[in-house]
Design goal:
By secondary structure, the protein is an alpha+beta fold. Helix content is 29%, strand content 26%. A hairpin with a 5-residue loop joins strand 8 and strand 9. The model has no long low-confidence stretch (mean pLDDT 95).
């Protein structure tokens, strides 16, 4: 793994907008192709293998939470437990997730957290960096089969849907990044033959009489892909209506367990000394040396604090933390030319599918952290 300075394409903004990637210059510069990361094929093999291994371990952790009734421990209201458990028993389909790793070659690959519910940076990882590769390095390869695996996953979902039943795609109005990622996923679903309809999350209606959900034309919504966090959704006025189980959602209710950072101490309980996990606990006392405090629920690096032996070193603001925190051993991120790099490894339909890289001048990856493309030498 190394970082190279490279010449950006003179027409890259136009090319990004042609594929629908419109927020490329968020906060001045978000997509950064003045640099790229280069990997060996052995390093890519390791990231792929570890991602699939940890995916299986996460499924064990879901079972562990359910059997031990640990909902409260990870910040989930216990009244939602039967609904979550029914979703798990049915094996309601999960589309995707993203592991965030710190990587120090050749073999030190450590899980920082799992974005299991509403991961973004998808269009960047899937399409944007692939077009960059084709333009500049067509003889190289990239860890990136995200689009193909999403297409297969939606084809499988299409075959499982009742005949002529649409899948609705929804997010909030105010977030361009969410909308672009959602529309990319909806486009892939359309390519797979799914009747994929769009609706804003606040336009979804609920009928007390029928116990069902409806769109603005009073058509029933039976299947929904939502780019909207479960921990927000269950707190809405209609949150408890979800317990009627008349709405099938992707990501499914059981994925709520993995969306809590409380899963990190539980993974450590299940596999202590796992080479790809960091010691993590629900209180800081067992940790000797620097550690990170993270809210059970948070987004884009908000409310994260770094501590050393003397106390707090760095912290980010935000609205999270009411549900509690977890404490994780601090892991140094790879550092290149003033940038800390985090690898985001995608799981699609249970398989490792590719990766994207975000970098920042600080050790905490935030919404302003830049996306940098990569390739590897086959």
């Amino acid at each position: 793994m190394e970082r190279l300075s490279v010449q950006e394409r003179p027409n890259w903004r136009r090319k990004m907008e042609e594929i629908g990637f419109t927020f490329h210059s968020l906060e001045g510069i978000y997509w950064n192709e003045r640099a790229c990361y280069v990997f060996s094929s052995e390093e890519i093999d390791l990231i792929e293998e570890v991602s699939e291994d940890l995916h299986l371990l996460c499924l064990e952790a879901v079972d562990y939470v359910i059997k031990k009734n640990l909902y409260g421990r990870i910040g989930l209201p216990e009244k939602f437990a039967p609904w979550i458990e029914n979703s798990w028993k049915r094996r309601d389909p999960s589309l995707y997730g993203r592991f965030d790793f710190s990587f120090h070659p050749p073999k030190t690959l450590k899980l920082l957290e799992y974005n299991a519910d509403t991961p973004t940076s998808l269009i960047e990882s899937s399409i944007a960096q692939w077009t960059w590769l084709e333009d500049l390095y067509p003889d190289r390869d990239q860890f990136n089969s995200i689009h193909e695996k999403l297409l297969l996953a939606f084809q499988q979902l299409r075959d499982d849907l009742p005949i002529e039943t649409p899948l609705y795609f929804s997010c909030v109005r105010e977030d361009e990044e969410d909308l672009v990622n959602l529309e990319y996923l909806r486009d892939v679903a359309l390519q797979a033959g799914v009747e994929a309809r769009f609706i804003w999350i606040d336009n979804i209606g609920f009928s007390e009489q029928t116990g069902k959900y409806y769109d603005l034309e009073d058509r029933p919504i039976r299947y929904l892909f939502k780019l909207y966090p479960w921990e927000w959704m269950i707190k809405e006025d209609f949150g408890e209506k979800l317990l009627g189980d008349t709405l099938k959602v992707i990501e499914p209710p059981w994925k709520m367990i993995l969306s809590s950072k409380g899963i990190l101490p539980l993974l450590w309980d299940l596999a202590p000394s796992h080479p790809n996990l960091l010691p993590s606990y629900f209180h800081p006392e067992p940790l000797k040396g620097p550690y990170v405090r993270k809210p059970l629920f948070s987004r884009e690096g908000t409310n994260v604090s770094l501590f050393d032996q003397l106390g707090p070193v760095m912290a980010t603001d935000g609205p999270y933390g009411d549900e509690g925190f977890i404490y994780q051993k601090s892991q140094e991120l790879p550092y290149f030319n003033g940038q800390y790099a985090v690898i985001g490894s995608w799981i699609v339909n249970g398989q490792a599918a590719g990766m994207g890289i975000r970098e920042d001048e600080t050790p905490i990856t935030r919404d302003t952290s830049r996306f940098v493309p990569h390739f590897f030498n086959p």
